[in-house]
Amino acid sequence: MGLPANEFALGAGQAFASDGNCRNASRMEKAAENRRTIAFLGLGVMGGPMAGHLARAGHRVIAYNRTPSRASKWKEALESDGLSVATASTPADAASAADVVITCVGNDEDLEQVLLSDSGALGVMKPGSLLIDHTTVSAHMARRVFAIASEQEIDAIDAPVSGGQAGAENARLAIMCGGTDKAFRRAEPVMQAYGARIVHVGSAGAGQTAKMANQMCIAGVLGGLSEAVRLVQASGMDSDKVLEAISGGAAQSWQMENRWKTMIEGDFDFGFAIDWMRKDLGYALEEAERLGLSTPVTTMIDQFYADVQVMGGSRQDTSALIRRLPQGKQP
After folding, report:
1. 73 an active-site residue?
2. What is the mean pLDDT of each run of 10 residues along the chain (331 residues)?
């Protein structure tokens, strides 16, 4: 049976609309092809927003969190935005049907629990699936996970992140990745949902080593910045004018741009706690010792952070380092 005559007599506008619909359909088909079933393990201040970005990108997300109430609140918030997500009672339950498993927990012990325990994800992951670990852990732990995953024919990549809570919420994270080229190629499209800069830095464990370097740099900058802020305060100068004068030169840093004013105001509630920084610096110092390196600045700043913990600042963000410095005499 032939088509109606008007099917052959489309005007220019109709033809354009039809072509546009074809392109939209093609994009939808491509998005469907890239859609994954993702188990996301860890819904803290970083993991929660990251998992949300994956759901908004069209992936099917099944989340697990050790505190069930946090998982429930995360699910309710996303469902209120019209998104369909699921939660699981164990890491294994979340991972059993997943194409991709993503972890974002606290430390070596936490990662071991969600991946390698009796209820851990690695025990149920399918050959050919993908594991992305965003936890900041030791390089030793990253290499251990990679070895176990490889035995099970699972691609694994260690991919710690930098950018803090704001970076996670705004999908502006920097991600440093260690693993095979194949694993990185598979992981990068997934991580683009929340990463602004994603770099493959080397083999298994290299992502963690890069994160250690990142944390050492932050610690050193905040040490100098704390002393500079106290100098300006003690001098009685206009701190805004000083910031304007020096932030465009060689002293400029992310910490100066984002924390100078809040350090002066005594506001230290920006997500990345001193407890976590000390954990990260501990891994850095451990790896440096293994490599036979001297790290006097990092060692000193780590102890300065220990002082702030004693002062009750364990859950304050890293810029609270300034608290250990007295303000000095005013002119």
Report:
1. no
2. 32 39 42 80 96 97 97 97 96 97 97 97 97 97 98 98 93 98 98 98 98 96 97 96 96 95 94 92 97 97 98 96 87 59
Q: Tell me how many degrees the CA angle 120-124-126 measures, rounded to the nearest 5.
A: 135
Backbone angles phi, psi at 101, to 5 degrees: -115, 130
CB atoms near residue 12 (< 10 Å): 7
Joined together, the tokens standing for residue 6 give: 């008007």
Beta bridge partners of 64: 41
For residue 170, give Cα distances in angstroms to 167, 195, 218, 291.
5, 9, 21, 36
Q: How confident is the model at residue 1, as a pLDDT?
A: 36
Query: What size, in residues, is the chain?
Result: 331
Tell me what pLDDT residue 271 has. 72
Q: What is the DSSP annotation of 97-158?
A: T-SEEEE--SSHHHHHHHHHSTT-STTTPPTT-EEEE-S---HHHHHHHHHHHHHTT-EEEE
Q: Which amino acid is at 69?
A: S
Query: Which of 30, 73, 182, 211 is flagged as catalytic?
Result: 211
